[in-house]
Amino acid sequence: MNGTTTPAVEFVAVSKRYGAATAVDEVSFTIKSGDMVTLLGPSGRGKTTTLRLIAGLERLDAGAIRINGVDVIGRPPTERDVSMVLQSYAPFPHMTVLRNVAYGLRAGCMPRAEAETAAREALALVGLGGFKERLPSELSGGQQQRVAVARAIVLRPAVLLFDEPLSNLAPNCAAMCAKRFATCSDSWA
Amino acid sequence: MLIGKAFTTISGKGQAGQATALPTVTRIGILAIGLPWAALTLVIYGMILFGGLVETWGLNHAFTLRHYADAFGVAVDGRGMTLTGQAWDSLLITLRLALIAAPLTALVGLIVAYLLERQRFAGRAAFAVGTLIAGAVPGTVLGIAYILAFSNPPLELVQTGAIVVLSFVVRNMGPGVRAGAAGLAQIDRSLEEASLTLRAGTFATFRHVVLPLLRPAIIAGLVYGFVTAMTTVSAVIFLVSPGIMLSTVYIVNLAEAGTYGIAIAYSSVLIVLMLTVILGIELAVGERRIGRRDLAGTVGAAT
Question: Which of A103, A107, B12, B303 has the smallest C-beta neighbourhood within 10 Å, fewest atoms?
Answer without folding.
Answer: B303
